[in-house]
Design a protein that fits this description.
The complex is a heterodimer of chains A (about 250) and B (about 500).
Chain A (H helix, E strand, L loop, with lengths): L1 E10 L2 E11 L4 E5 L6 H9 L6 E6 L12 E5 L10 H11 L4 H15 L15 H13 L5 E5 L7 H18 L2 E6 L2 H7 L2 E6 L2 E6 L1 H6 L4 H9 L4 H7 L2
Parallel strand pairs in A: 3-7, 3-8, 5-6, 6-7
Antiparallel strand pairs in A: 1-2, 1-4, 8-9
Helix pairs in contact in A: 2-3, 2-4, 3-4
Chain B lengths: L1 H13 L2 E7 L2 H17 L3 E8 L2 H9 L5 E5 H8 L8 H9 L3 E3 L9 E6 H7 L14 E4 L1 H5 L4 H8 L5 E4 L2 H9 L5 E5 L3 H5 L2 E4 L11 E6 H6 L1 H11 L5 H12 L5 H8 L11 H36 L1 H16 L2 H12 L3 H25 L3 H9 L4 H31 L12 H10 L2 H29 L2 H10 L1
The chains are: A alpha/beta (about 250), B alpha/beta (about 500).
């Protein structure tokens, strides 16, 4: 379980997070939805310990996990942040190497993860620039899962991909999250993506939580005119929905 | 015969060495050669040549610091540059002042290398010119002076006042060109150094300084006192064979041998000592190989030291933003010190020879390495660096696995720049007796002999190219394959 209580963060004069309280239930996929600058990425960075909140508390309870917090949290960012000088395999094994795993254990885990994310094993010998954007994100996900952390944080993981690849990877990620039963927090600006992934959605605007609930809650019982406005802005044009109707 | 050679070889190896220094101009080289040959002949010690030191500061520093045992100097220089007391004029007074510093002064060698005015012999007899005062009666003459002489207080301005001279025309001219101008009759009076080799070749008259305006630049030998004490016969031989034995004309002849007839300093010295120069020491071939080795050594050792020091400094600067400013400024300041000045600072600390040269060269090589290491590491994509924290890579792992490989292209560029710069700067090592190609360049400059200068400069340029190519090859080993591909794609 991840819990934020009254968390506030400023960068200079700008308030990035304003009194955020949020609970992420274990084994669920929780989506943080909002436009850029809404503070959703900052929440992930605070959970990771990369950013220190100015006020409030963060608690992460991963029953049984030990070691530095990063050992039990996997992190995937837009465009992957793979190291260009290392092959895909070396990138994936990096956290295990640092944790002192044996070579056998590392390659066994590597193989299992490649099967999980459906990446051809021969692609693992390639360097990041020799992989497509979708393949890079699969590798990045493998790296985040290498130490089998109970928590997975994803910051716009599909943001840089073209729509068709994006849609197919969404379906696949939903399958993977279902198999792994991990606590997942996914950040996106895309309403459709939020709907695909999230049983629980938290909508943020200017560093504040506007509403929390299922997509149906947000659509049917908007807490605020902003909620309807945000959802409407990303809805397909009416003419298009009519044409697509059978 | 063979036995004699063997015995000579054996005793030679056993004899203690005496280090003979010189400054980097022809006359100093020749005098030092003469001294070296007399030392070898006297049989008590073996002469070791540390010739071509780049100036009074370096030569005197080397003697005072015990890095050389003896070198030729001039009384005017002793008074003004070493003792800094222009009022001192007598050799006796200098002997007392230097004695306090453990340095002995020989009998004057017999010549005085000072400014003088020269005229053509026919002109001198036609106008009855013998002394400088005589010129005051001929205001119609035309003069050509070297720029230094024209400006210095102890040059033309002072001389003009002292003697009340006036000329129809006074023009500034490069020193080397004044001789032909005088010989051709384009001018009537020029300034010269009283032992210039040219004086021995052209039919010129030096006008006596009858009202004693020019300071004395009488040549003497300066030696460490223990030389005279430990090697009494050698010191006696030097005094006996040189004291009062070289007059201005003789010195000018010797200078002419080297400057105008392109004879080696050793040959000129042998001529003075009345010997046919037996073995012209094995020229070019063997010498070039030795100098190449010396030069390569200078570059390799100083560059290695600079990398070993510069990488950690660069990394430190990338870690501590506050420190970085101070550090980069400090390293930058070293770079602004003129190379010769930096070399001369090293002499009191490290004497002369390879060591001070290596220290100075290492310091010079530092800036590009520190700068590129700092820039390379601190300009890495912050998202990639942040990810190291998330993945649990800390300390040396983050450095060795991620930061250094990613910055390697930039860092290698800095090391390459340093290497090529060092090949060039290392030619200055010769001024502190550090050897290398600079030895030829310094000698060539003294002789104004372009061929000798090029004999040092061309191999240095070739070495710079070779080293650059070698580092390009080294890139393949050091820079990760994928980054090389990316770098060449970006090109």
């Amino acid at each position: 379980m991840i819990a934020l209580r009254h968390v506030t963060k400023r960068f200079g004069d700008r308030v990035a997070l304003d009194d955020i309280s949020l609970t992420v239930e274990p084994g669920r996929t929780h989506v943080l939805l909002g436009s850029s600058g809404s503070g959703k990425s900052t929440i992930l960075r605070i959970v990771l310990g990369l950013v220190r909140p100015d006020a409030g508390e963060v608690s992460i309870d991963t029953d049984g996990a030990s070691g530095p917090p990063t050992r039990h949290i996997g992190y995937v960012v837009q465009e992957g942040a793979l190291y260009p000088h290392l092959t895909a395999a070396r990138n994936v094994m990096l956290p295990a190497r640092a944790a002192g795993w044996s070579a056998e254990r590392q390659s066994a885990r590597l193989e299992a993860l490649a099967a999980l994310v459906e990446l051809y094993p021969e692609l693992l010998a390639r360097y990041p620039h020799e992989l497509s954007g979708g393949q890079q994100q699969r590798v990045s996900l493998m790296r985040a899962l290498m130490l089998d952390p109970p928590i997975l944080l994803l910051d716009e993981p599909l943001g840089a991909l073209d729509p068709i690849i994006r849609a197919s990877l969404q379906t696949e990620l939903v399958r993977i999250f279902g198999e792994l039963r991990k606590t997942v927090v996914l950040v996106t600006h895309d309403v459709r993506e939020a709907f695909v992934f999230g049983s629980v959605i938290t909508l943020l605007n200017h560093g504040r939580i506007v509403q929390q609930g299922t997509l149906a809650d947000l659509a049917q019982r908007p807490a605020d005119p902003f909620v309807s406005e945000f959802l409407r802005a990303q809805a397909p044009p009416p003419a298009m929905t009519r044409d697509l109707r059978p | 015969m063979l036995a004699v050679l063997l015995v000579a070889g054996a005793t030679r190896a056993e004899r203690p060495s005496l280090r003979v220094g010189s400054k980097s101009f022809t006359e100093s080289y020749i005098l030092a050669e003469i001294v070296a040959q007399i030392i070898d002949e006297a049989g008590e010690a073996r002469a070791e040549r540390r010739l071509g030191l780049g100036g009074t500061g370096l030569a005197w520093g080397a003697l005072a610091g015990g890095a050389i045992d003896i070198y030729p100097e001039y009384t005017g220089t002793i008074a003004q540059a070493i003792l800094k007391d222009p009022a001192l004029t007598s050799v006796g007074a200098m002997r007392a002042a230097l004695g306090a510093q453990g340095v002995v002064v020989s009998e004057p060698l017999g010549f005085d290398n000072t400014y003088a005015l020269a005229v053509r012999r026919d002109e001198a007899s036609r106008l009855g010119l013998r002394v400088i005062s005589d010129l005051a009666r001929h205001p119609g003459l035309r003069a050509a002076f070297d720029a230094g002489f024209l400006e210095r207080a102890d040059g033309w301005p002072g001389l003009q006042r002292h003697y009340g001279l006036r000329f129809a025309d006074v023009r500034v001219m490069e020193h080397a060109l004044t001789y032909p101008a005088l010989a051709d009759g384009r001018v009537d009076v020029i300034d010269v150094f009283s032992t210039d080799g040219q004086l021995a070749r052209l039919d010129l008259v030096l006008l006596a300084d009858d009202r004693r305006f020019f300071p004395d630049y009488t040549a003497v030998l300066l030696a460490r006192r223990d030389l005279a004490e430990r090697f009494p016969q050698t010191w006696a031989a030097l005094q006996r064979r040189l004291g009062g034995r070289i007059n201005n004309a003789a010195m000018a002849q010797l200078n002419a041998l080297a400057d105008l007839e392109r004879r080696s300093f050793a040959e000129a010295a042998a001529t003075f000592l009345g010997r046919r120069s037996g073995e012209t020491p094995q020229r070019r071939g063997g010498e070039l190989a030795r100098l190449t080795l010396e030069h390569l050594q200078l570059v390799a050792v100083s560059l290695t030291a600079a990398v070993l020091l510069g990488l950690p400094l660069g990394i430190l600067a990338a870690r501590r933003r506050r420190l970085a400013q101070a550090e980069l400024m400090g390293v930058g300041v070293i770079q602004t010190i003129p190379a010769l000045a930096l070399l001369s600072f090293m002499i009191p600390l490290f004497g002369i020879g390879q060591v001070p040269a290596l220290v100075a060269l290492s310091l010079y090589a530092l800036l590009p390495i520190v700068r590129t290491t700092h820039a390379g590491i601190s300009s890495l994509d912050p998202r990639l660096i942040e990810m190291t924290t998330v993945l649990g890579l800390r300390g040396w792992r983050r450095l060795a696995w991620i930061e250094l490989p990613l910055a390697s292209v930039t860092i290698m560029a800095g090391i390459k720049t340093s290497a090529v710069l060092t090949v060039g700067t290392a030619t200055l090592a010769a001024f502190v007796g550090g050897g290398g190609y600079g030895t030829l360049i310094v000698t060539g400059l003294a002789l104004n002999d372009v061929r000798t200068i090029l004999a040092g400069a061309i191999p240095a340029a070739v070495m710079a190219l070779v080293i650059h190519a070698a580092f390009e090859a080294l890139d393949r080993l050091v820079v990760p394959r994928a980054l090389r591909a990316a770098a060449s794609a970006a090109r």
